[in-house]
């Protein structure tokens, strides 16, 4: 079975799951229920595409398939920024009530962080991956500790508002942000088309890419900026989902058996959307909202992460 057929089957699976999610169990007024399900599907599609794209790019840049952008503290930085706004300005601030302004400032903050991180680590030849892991873990812990410190000091009612941003859930999708998120996602996908062939070369490693004429430093800087924007986008919409990217990208690698990022990107996005739609169906129809999709995804992704570690250890 070639990759075109596999991608076609994944597309059919996504369409079937979306139809199942939209049209089954409709109780009450269609005018009320159906538009809300459409908003959820739109948020799932944007979030799934953003997480799959950012993880695939990050794994190619680092040349490691068990890493995600969250390892360098991007998710933690986003939550720290939200906590800081709530701690300093309060829940009535325009920075909290205006979703678009909040998203733009969060993205700018993450881009500055990525630029600083790049100067600290990726300029150091031969050691960047180890520095990436070490500094990322340290900074992620630091951001989490600072967030917790401020969260215990803020008003309990404001903490409840902040809590909605700390756990991934498609039941409280930020609808006001959907048009901007859709526009940003399309712009990033179009911008990223020029890098698909270069990503194939980058997957060979830094030395081979440089020898083949790739402007390595400039390309890496741009790709990290793309990953930061996408992580900010997905986290702003539904909250952090730690293991989803790791899960879907590695499944895409095993399913497609290719190095070409055009096929890997398409399949990763489709698998991500199918996983999120299937997980949301379980949350709503099986568990009747007694859990969140982040619990299901993190359980499946964590188990798969352990499997990857054990498999690599045997090789």
What order do the helices and strands come in, and which of them pair?
Elements: H1 3-23, H2 30-62, H3 74-89, H4 94-97, H5 99-122, H6 128-151, H7 156-166, H8 178-192, H9 196-202, H10 206-211, H11 216-238, H12 244-256, H13 261-286, H14 293-314
Helix pairs in contact: 1-2, 1-13, 2-8, 2-11, 2-12, 2-13, 3-5, 3-6, 3-7, 5-11, 8-11, 12-13
Q: What would you note in describing this structure?
A:
With 315 residues, the chain is mainly α. Helices cover 78% and strands 0% of the residues. The protein is built from 14 helices and no strands.
Helix content: over 70%
Per DSSP E runs of 2 or more residues, the count of β-strands stands at 0
Number of helices: 14
Subunit arrangement of the protein = single chain
Sheet of most strands = none
Judging from the principal axes of the Cα atoms, what is the shape? globular
Average of per-residue pLDDT values: 81
Order of helices and strands: HHHHHHHHHHHHHH
Radius of gyration: 20 Å
Question: DSSP strand (E) fraction?
Answer: under 5%
End-to-end C-alpha gap: 27 Å
User: Could you list the spans in which at least 5 consecutive residues all have pLDDT below 50?
Assistant: none
User: How would you classify the helix and strand content by structural class?
Assistant: mainly alpha
């Amino acid at each position: 079975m070639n990759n075109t057929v596999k991608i076609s089957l994944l597309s059919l699976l996504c369409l079937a799951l979306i139809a199942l999610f939209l049209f089954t169990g409709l109780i009450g007024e269609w005018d009320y229920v159906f538009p809300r399900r459409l908003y959820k599907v739109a948020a799932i599609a944007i979030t799934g595409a953003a997480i799959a794209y950012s993880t695939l790019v990050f794994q190619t840049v680092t040349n490691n398939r068990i890493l995600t952008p969250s390892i360098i503290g991007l998710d933690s930085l986003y939550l720290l920024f939200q906590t800081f706004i709530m701690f300093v300005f309060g829940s009535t601030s325009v920075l909290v009530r205006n979703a678009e302004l909040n998203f733009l400032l969060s993205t700018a903050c993450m881009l500055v962080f990525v630029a600083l991180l790049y100067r600290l680590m990726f300029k150091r030849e031969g050691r960047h991956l180890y520095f990436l892991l070490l500094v990322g873990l340290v900074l992620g812990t630091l951001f989490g500790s600072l967030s917790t410190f401020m969260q215990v000091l803020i008003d309990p009612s404001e903490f409840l508002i902040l809590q909605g941003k700390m756990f991934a859930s498609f039941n409280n999708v930020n609808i006001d942000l959907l048009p901007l998120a859709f526009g940003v996602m399309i712009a990033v996908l179009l911008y990223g088309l020029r890098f698909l062939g270069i990503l194939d070369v980058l997957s060979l490693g830094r030395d081979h890419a440089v020898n083949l004429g790739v402007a390595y430093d400039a390309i890496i800087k741009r790709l990290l900026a793309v990953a930061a924007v996408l992580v900010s986008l997905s986290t702003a919409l539904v909250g952090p989902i730690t293991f989803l990217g790791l899960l879907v990208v590695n499944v895409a690698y095993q399913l497609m058996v290719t190095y070409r990022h055009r096929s890997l990107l398409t399949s990763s996005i489709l698998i991500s959307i199918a996983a999120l739609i299937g997980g949301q169906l379980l949350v709503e129809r099986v568990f009747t909202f007694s859990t969140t999709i982040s619990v299901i995804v993190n359980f499946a992704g964590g188990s798969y992460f352990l499997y990857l570690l054990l498999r690599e250890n045997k090789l």
